[in-house]
Amino acid sequence: MSAVAPVFSPLYLQIKAQLTRSLQSGQWKPGEAIPSEMELAVLFKVSQGTVRKAIDELATENLLVRRQGRGTFVATHAEERTQYRFLRLTADDGQAHRLQRRLLDCRRERPVAEMARALGMKASESVVRVRRLLLQLDEPVVLDHIYLPGLMFKGLNAELLNDHVGPMYRLFESEFGVRMIRAEEKIRAVAADATQAQLLGVVVGTPLLLVERLSFTYGDRPVELRRGYYRTDQYHYRNELM
Amino acid sequence: MSAVAPVFSPLYLQIKAQLTRSLQSGQWKPGEAIPSEMELAVLFKVSQGTVRKAIDELATENLLVRRQGRGTFVATHAEERTQYRFLRLTADDGQAHRLQRRLLDCRRERPVAEMARALGMKASESVVRVRRLLLQLDEPVVLDHIYLPGLMFKGLNAELLNDHVGPMYRLFESEFGVRMIRAEEKIRAVAADATQAQLLGVVVGTPLLLVERLSFTYGDRPVELRRGYYRTDQYHYRNELM
DNA sequence: GAGTGGTCTAGACCACCAC
DNA sequence: TGGTGGTCTAGACCACTCA
Fold first, then answer.
1. Quick check: B61 contacting A, CB < 8 Å?
2. Does chain A have fewer CB atoms within 10 Å around its N or its C terminus?
3. Using alpha carbons only, how large is chain B's radius of gyration in Å?
4. What is the C-alpha to C-alpha distance for residues B120 and B165, in angstroms, rounded to an integer?
């Protein structure tokens, strides 16, 4: 009789969506604790187990971090543990050296159509283009070209980037309120051109990994396009298939 | 007073371990249903919820597949859904064509020390080496070198490989009782040598992705080493970072 | 309709952490 | 010692599948 098919959505998914909205709105900031499971249960008028299931999923998606005995916290790129969470490059000998960062330049430019589309920008909006090197023991390993929507990253410049210590995603989080949640990468093998070869200290034509990364913030909104050229003579991109 | 620190292990993890042993021993075969949650709860003398949590984890690890209303089944590579689960290569235009397989050769040889170690073999045991191409629309895309422990894959030969339809991992499952659970990949950019160039239809020196995959079966036992040379002129390796 | 997995509850107790 | 997340239980009802 009923004309409308009822959309079945479990309670815990509705609560998960509500929690996601709170994160997205900035009600709870990266690093802060969210209310306890019991408090949320009372607030949403459900049992603790239902809240728990919602939080469980957000924790496996790396939006929240649970700490037994202390509480549940909004995930952040500021912690040692989660630094370089998105960088899959590893030394062949397994050693985990610290990476140095060297800024090359930072400027604003017109986006090409394809990039504007990928980032969900109007063609009239400018993009910030950052170029930088990652080095290990003073040897260049990665050349990054980073593209960001100009309006969202108003005020981003070379000075800010140089003064900041720690990963770039931490700067984005603290200065611009943009937190990277997940990313998609497309990987290809390419030959180094003259510029890339010079910056990475290899001969022209050397095979490089080209890693094109599109990063998303809350609500699956794309906010960064990054082209990384990786040397793989003493390093490799590691991946786990499950 | 007690001299021994008690090792705390939640019930559901003990049950998960027990279920894993049953899978490993072949008590339940790929594609078959395992007992229902209630039956297992009675068997292990715990509540249904505890069994559920153990099965939940095995399902997220792709060892089991839950189907509402039907039961819980042992995962298999035989299904359409899970074919090429480990192949991350995608056409740039997003089209999902069917891949053709072309066997090049299959022979037994002495493993080099490094390979014997990776596969956990004695140096005296031989390895089976399979070379094959993957093609899309008659154009070569991937050149695979596949190395398998000789004793585990006794009887594997070119005829068997040629007669078999479907993915290789399905053959391994049905003929040799070896099911691939997960894999680790190391990815590099290399220049095509003469042989690779000829087989893949590119000029010598063309940058190729070298994807070195180590696959594991139950109990984290390595059982396959695979070196794949991927063309990435019209394809890319896709990855999701979370 | 019988049987399966999926959701939800209410309450108990345990492990861990900070004060 | 009190509060947090982590485990476990027993039971209810819902959604889905298949005979």
1. yes
2. N
3. 21
4. 29
- For chain B, first and last CA: distance in Å? 46
Kindly identify which residue of chain B lies nearest to residue A57, measuring between CA atoms.
Answer: B60
Per-residue pLDDT of chain A in tens (242 residues, 90 and over written 9) = 333 444 579 999 999 999 999 999 999 999 999 999 999 999 999 999 999 999 999 999 999 999 999 999 999 998 867 778 999 999 999 887 788 999 999 999 999 999 999 999 998 999 999 999 999 999 999 999 999 999 999 999 999 999 998 899 999 999 999 999 999 999 999 999 999 999 999 999 999 999 999 999 998 999 999 999 999 999 999 999 99
pTM exceeds cut of 0.90: yes
Question: In B, residues 209-228, which contact A (CB 8 Å cutoff)?
Answer: 209, 212-213
Q: Which residues in chain B have Cβ-Cβ distances shorter than 8 Å to A189? A: 189-190, 207-209, 230, 232
Nucleic strand D contact set for A 35-54 (CB, < 7 Å):
36-39, 49, 52
| B88 → chain A, closest CA residue | A241
Residue type, A174: S
